[in-house]
Structure prediction request, 100 residues.
Amino acid sequence: MAARIDHCMQLAEQLARAIRAESSLELFLLPSPPSKEVVLWRPRSEVDLGQVRARFERSFVSITEFSGQRWFRPVAANPMAAPDGIVADVAEAVARIGAS
Prediction:
């Protein structure tokens, strides 16, 4: 069980790194060190998160509200998560919405 938890925490860290590396995405940062198991993020462009999520082909994230703003929130407990795939899905979905 400990190994599974460690793996999921590593996935959350990988996702945060992938989000930071993608200039079109915004990572929510807490004033204190962020919790590793919760990663909140969204596209920097003004798009409806529900429309973006509906266009995902490989990924699953929930939408949550924090401090009056909507954010994507993947579940870190998903050992099958693919951080790079999640970031790619968002970039592709935002591009398709912009092209519509």
Remarks:
- The longest strand covers residues 62-66.
- The chain has a mean pLDDT of 81.
